[in-house]
Amino acid sequence: MSTPTPKSPVLLQLKAGQHVRWQPARAATVQVVGGRIWLTQANDPYDHFVDAGQSLRLQPGVATVLGAEVDAQVSVAMQPSRFARLGQLAASLARAARRSTPRRDEAGSPAVSR
Q1: What Pfam families does this protein map onto (predicted)?
Q2: Range of the domain at 81
């Protein structure tokens, strides 16, 4: 199964020195669009410095502090919930089943392509 596609991202505009405290309920991907940020998470002994074009995945339920070293634009995309992924899988399987099911005419016989 492939990695789930993140939901539509939210774009944060941060001024130099501004920081945000956050505890994501679901896994999230932080991508720096412009500028440079530092990011630290509880139980992680390291600060992470992320430049424009780079991204970092956040674990769910972990307290996070994100700060801008310079003015920065940051895209944050939450991963879909398990229920959303199950719904996406069910829809994908239903589409595949419709494509593989032979068409039938009104009498119930397989349709003949001409």
Answers
A1: DUF2917 (PF11142)
A2: 10-100
